[in-house]
Amino acid sequence: MKVTDHQNSAKGRTQFTFEILPPLKGQNIQSIFDAIDPLMEFKPPFIDVTYHREEYTYVEREKGLLEKRVIRKRPGTVGICAAIQNRYKVDAIPHIICGGFSQEDTENFLIDLHFLGIDNVVALRGDAVKSETYFKPSKGGHTYAKDLVAQIKNLNRGQYMDEEILNSTPTDFCVGVAGYPEKHAEAPSLDRDIHFFKRKNNRRFRLHHHTDVF
User: 39, 43, 95, 171: which sits with the fewest CB atoms below 10 Å from its CB?
Assistant: First the structure.
């Protein structure tokens, strides 16, 4: 069920949802279940699951050379979403970010979600890695969340990156984006922040207690 449907069916009633962080690599999902179980009495219509981008480490090799290694400290967003929907019978909403993904990676990520019956996604640019002052996209990836949203909308129309695909099946994702009531830290002004927010979300929206807007 789409978030917009949940909002429409609420008919003015307050809905409580929450967002969870995938466990560190090496831990199991039981810690997630232990955190969610006592919260289910509030009957959340959906649960957000964050996605954390890659980090870099440098390993010293012979002659003082440094080898750059990519690590993901909190993998498992897709698997956790599938587990939540199976265990609690509520919608799970994965975050999708620009950083660390090529457009092909993003398409494959979305295909996996579509196969799992996940109807909602939150499209985010994401933060810069700790070693960078400003956000830099991955090779072949998106620079801005609006471009990520555009790719998702193309898939909803059945437009895949491989133009030779025939009789493609369109996806049907409900897309959420981030809004910043206090202004994004990188925006030069509130007016410019609102301008770019509108470019991400070109339909009428309802702002609620969370910063995600569908």
Answer: 43
